[in-house]
Every structure is written in C-alpha cells, then in structure tokens.
Amino acid sequence: MALSNNDIFKKLRVALKLRDDDIVEICALVDFKVTKSELGAIFRAEDHPKYMECGDQFLRNFLNGLVIHKRGVMPKKSDGESK
C-alpha cells in the first residue's frame, strides 16, 4: 500500500516535531495561507467526517516552505556567474 500525501505530511510533522503554528509559519514563507482548522482536518483519521485529503499543491507548498525554513532563502545568482 502506497503512502498518501496525508501520511507523508503526518510523518514529517512528527519527525520534525512541528506544531500547527510552525506549519502555518512555514507555509507563509511561500505565500501559502493555511489555517489551523485545515491542518486539523488533514491530520484526522480517514474515516472521520471532517477528514480532508491533502492535495499535491498543499504538500508541495509545505515542502518548498520547509526548504526555506531549514536552509534559508537561496541567494540570487548574478548574470556573470557560470551555471
């Protein structure tokens, strides 16, 4: 059985010891707005009536924000630099 986006998100939250406030701040780094109630719906059990599926865009934005959170903003390359 493959892992769903929800499973991946839950595992990252536990492994990195992130709280809901931390996740909201990480998503804000990439201008992606998320509320604590949305996070609660994503982290619920699949059989719960208020369960929400974590879409690809949601997980992608979180991961992009996590890179900035952990590494910092990537410096801009000047035109003269070789690639």
TrEMBL record:
InterPro entries: YehS-like. This is Uncharacterized protein. It comes from Gillisia limnaea (strain DSM 15749 / LMG 21470 / R-8282). Pfam families: DUF1456.
